[in-house]
Amino acid sequence: MKTSPSSPTSAGPDEAAPAAGQTLRPTPLWGAAGRKGQGGRVARIASMGLLAALVLFALVGPLLWRQYAGQDLSQFLQPPSPAEPFGHDHLGRSVIARLAHATRLSLGLALLCVVTAAVVGVALGVLAAWRRGWVDQLLLGVSEVFLALPALLIVLIFAALASGEMWTIYVGIALALWVEYFRVVRARAVSVLNSPAVEAATLLKLGSLHVLRRHLWPELAPVLLTMASLGMATAVLAMSTLSYVGVGLKPPTAELGLLITESLPYYHEAPWMVVAPVMVLLLLLVGLLGLRSQETRR
Amino acid sequence: METLQDPPTDAAPPTPAPRGNAVARAAGRILVRRAAQALGVAITVTITCFVIVQNLPGDIAFRIAAGRYGYDKVDAAAAAEVRTDLGLDEPAWQQLGGWVIDALRLDFGTSLVTGASVADELGHHLSATLQLAAVSLLISITLGAAIGVLAAQNRGGPLDRITDAWVALVRALPPFVLGLVLIIVFSVQLGWVPAAGHGERGNIVLPALTLAVGLSGLFARVTRDTVAQILNSEHVHFARTKGLAGHVILARHVLRNAGVTLVAYIGVQVLILVEGVVVVESLFAWPGLGHALVHAVFWRDIPAMQATVLALAMIVVVVSTLVDLAVLALDPRTREVR
User: Fold this and answer.
1) Could you report the per-residue pLDDT of A210-264, keeping only the tens digit for each?
2) What is this model's ipTM?
3) How close, in Å, is residue B52 to chain A by CA atoms?
4) What are the Cα distances from residue B110, in Å, to A122, A166, A185, B116, B138?
């Protein structure tokens, strides 16, 4: 559950109560533990394909369907046609154009949040592991506080400061995500920095840059990648949830949660309007979560 | 070799008496750590809320005066009265000190919107939230553990595959989408249960189910992996070789050991549970902390927001503490480590 300094990863379910019976075959540190390798690989490739398609849609879609805010009431709830695969919404706007812009916004903001959180978390984690002492204790204490605050609460607090503005969501999500990186990186870095290999490198006076590049980074990189996909899922979900609840981005914006909220009153007359954003959100989350099949913190 | 033979002087001798001590010491460590965490959260949230109030657009005194006297009776005199009354004209650090002391005394002031005491409202919200959380936790553990054990027993079989796909789907399903689907299916189309609200019979069904389905997926996966791991272990092989019946092995050797992991995992789940509570309560108009929090954020009702955030964070801390202590009681290994 919570990291003890010696355990390598922060908080997989397997680490929650370690050594609850040893398996005979060696379990991989990361990835689908205790599972036949084949199924996991297929799932990973499938979700990569899915994500690639969605990224393509997010990059190319807004160029093909530029108008996402133009209203045309003569097109009120127009059903899908070859030119407009998802029809028009209650204000006559093109649903696919709004969807493309919303996907781009979700992916872009999620990526920004994750990169920010990762950079801060990794930097602080390495710093804490390197210096130890009071720096370490202070940062650990701060991270303990954040561990008791669910991500959505942090984002909500910031939403109160300036409701509907993009930066509050960005700062809130990044602030919620960095702890995970900090805890994992710190735990790994402590064990790497105490290893005989690093001791030897220090004795050879290879310098701290060498240790960072050749010892620490190879250990951290795969973990960070998987954490990033998970973090992006959290960010996408938090963003859409916030606007669904009514304290996130404000209406004319094309955002997945908003698209769902706006289309709900018409679910009987125009089901395509509801189904399209729900499916995109679902596929986005399936793709991001499917990159790895084991849980970390949330 | 002599150094190895020599026991360190301060090591506890392996007699029964210090064993109890060790448990008490471990429990004490947990309590101290969690208390520090709770205090840190309280101070952080209070300071953050204070900063937000300081930076809110407009004069907070006018808003409070509007809450007290009504929107049509607000003028500069009323605002000035509020300002001196609440000490809003004191320097910021002095006000902050007052806030922190008030928060420690569980006095969160009055709501900027309703004018009622925040602490009073908090009690109602808390009981509604705890009711919802307890029911959904119960459902999800039962459901998840049952599915997980069944899947672990025929690993690689069709049931395992279905469980895997189901868990992946449930994991990716945002709670608000799931809630909407449940409302449309069970309330609008079938008319079995009311869609939203509180106080009528059957109101709790849909919100509890929404929360429970999401959580059960995670419980199912953890149970499956843990049980599968235990089934592969040597002591289960031994029990099987000894000729014990399958259900005896399951009850005595597998479930008891898996239980520890499940209990420990509740501590991880509580974060997801609290997040889910916020969403599900707003969706189903369940009058709990999450619903109150979203309202407070929407109306910039900072005292109410501070109280609800603190209450939700305290739920996390208290549940984590209970889980830590439960694991300590259930699993003897945790007493010796560290």
Assistant:
1) 777 777 788 787 788 878 888 888 888 888 888 887 777 777 777 777 878 777 7
2) 0.73
3) 6
4) 41, 30, 43, 5, 35
